[in-house]
């Protein structure tokens, strides 16, 4: 019996390096904030870095009730 990997369930772990939709530049420690539904094609995901989350009171998607 193998131990389950729960890295994706650790909400305090930074999600890594990528595009911050708020200050519009690459940054580390991104969290998924929201998903914009679109009529056609895949939705667009919005990520924000820690400074932008604190500045805009953004709640990560996974941390919402
Ligand atoms: Zn940012």
Q: Calculate the mean pLDDT score and round it.
A: 81
Based on helices, strands and strand pairing, what is the structural class?
A: alpha+beta
The major pleated sheet works out as: 2 strands, antiparallel
How far from one another are the termini?
Answer: 32 Å
Strand content: 25-35%
Silhouette: globular
Percent of residues in helices comes to 10-25%
| Unique ligands | zinc ion
Tally of helical runs = 1
Radius of gyration: 14 Å
Question: Which stretches are low in confidence, meaning pLDDT under 50 for 5 or more residues running?
Answer: 5-9
> How many strand elements?
4
Sequence of strands across the biggest β-sheet: 1-2
Q: Give me the strand/helix succession.
A: EEEEH
Set down the secondary structure blueprint.
Blueprint: E1 18-20, E2 25-27, E3 31-36, E4 44-48, H1 50-56
Antiparallel strand pairs: 1-2, 3-4
The chain binds zinc ion.
Zinc ion binds at residues 20, 22-23, 27, 48-49, 51-52.
Question: Could you explain the architecture of this structure?
Answer:
- It is built from 1 helix and 4 strands, in the order ββββα.
- With 65 residues, it is an alpha+beta fold.
- It has a domain of 31 residues.
- The strands form 2 sheets. It has a two-stranded antiparallel ribbon. It has a two-stranded antiparallel sheet with strand order 3-4.
- The chain is globular and about 45 Å long.
- The chain starts with 17 loop residues before the first strand and ends in a 9-residue tail after the last helix.
- The site of zinc ion has 8 residues, from helix 1.
